[in-house]
């Protein structure tokens, strides 16, 4: 019968077996201790500061929109394990430091929400097991508005030639979608809303028929809008090239006829906001060269129109765009945007 080795007996002190046994025990204790240290170091909770862009999106919404800038730069302090923070930092770098927040479920309203709450509800913060403790700015303000669609006329924007009649635009109108608040701003414009084609310089186009597929400018005034379709077909006939002429003319003030007799101008005086700017404008006019030569500066009438309601806005500055009237028998038109003046009616001092 084979003899079994008895490990229960202690090896002779300072013998080779004794040293080997001690080394083996020390090795396993060191390995386990090191693993515990590494795990504790990875899982140790500590705060870290990040800078990112908070981007509001409405991926699921069809009838609402975020008004204004959807991007906000934020700096925030995050608490979590070193491993989770390192993973989140890599994710943030891979996504260009952009954190998207879907607000599709928000109804049309003005909101002011703590940034800490928004970030802690973000899917990537939750997925990495992190907690946002502080953020700057502290509050995110934004507006969700209702979308409205309307049919708006398309205008061919060109210069440099006289056309035989009006250009044929297909389709003549497009569907314009904008926030309800933007439509209210558009309604305050002095002219009917229109969508313009991309500008076309026809000065080098020979006389004859032309057909072009043109992109539309997605804005009315300074208000950005959504368009459907985004392009139109324009057919036109060039008769002859045109030239331009710039004329400096005075701006006249047209007021309701009743003001001349009801004492309005006895009680009020018109005050301009920028007193260093004279009541004059430079107007660029385009048309056939013969018509431009015939045009006299005194035939160009530039004016702004006062309204009865202007007397009710004594504390605020009013802004009015200059309107221009050209001789009807000349084939001329104004080129470019007309300037505007800020003014208000002030009671005369007694």
Notes on the protein architecture:
The chain is of the alpha+beta class and 350 residues long. It folds into three domains: 45-137, no CATH class; 148-241, YbbR-like domain (RNA Polymerase Alpha Subunit, Chain A, domain 2), CATH 2.170.120.40; 243-347, RNA Polymerase Alpha Subunit, Chain A, domain 2, CATH 2.170.120.30. The chain has helices spanning 16-43, 82-94, 115-120, 123-127, 180-187, 264-267, 289-294, and strands at residues 45-57, 64-67, 71-81, 98-102, 109-114, 131-136, 139-155, 158-159, 161-163, 168-170, 173-179, 194-196, 200-201, 208-215, 219-220, 223-224, 226-228, 231-241, 243-254, 268-272, 280-287, 301-305, 318-321, 323-325, 333-335, 340-347. Strands 2, 5, 7, 11, 12 and 17 form a six-stranded mixed β-sheet that branches. The protein has a five-stranded mixed β-sheet with strand order 24-22-19-21-25. The protein has a four-stranded mixed β-sheet with strand order 4-1-3-6. It is elongated, with a radius of gyration of 37 Å.
- SSE-based structural type: alpha+beta
Oligomer: single chain
CATH topology of the largest domain: RNA Polymerase Alpha Subunit, Chain A, domain 2
Unreliable segments (pLDDT under 50, ≥5 consecutive)? none
**How many strand segments?**
26
The amount of helix comes to 10-25%
Largest β-sheet summary: 6 strands, mixed
Rounded average pLDDT: 86
CATH architectural type of the largest domain: Beta Complex
Strand content: 35-45%
How many helices does DSSP assign?
A: 7
Query: What is the CATH domain class of the largest domain?
Result: Mainly Beta
Distance between the termini: 133 Å
> Judging from the principal axes of the Cα atoms, what is the shape?
elongated
The overall number of domains is: 3
The radius of gyration over CA amounts to 37 Å
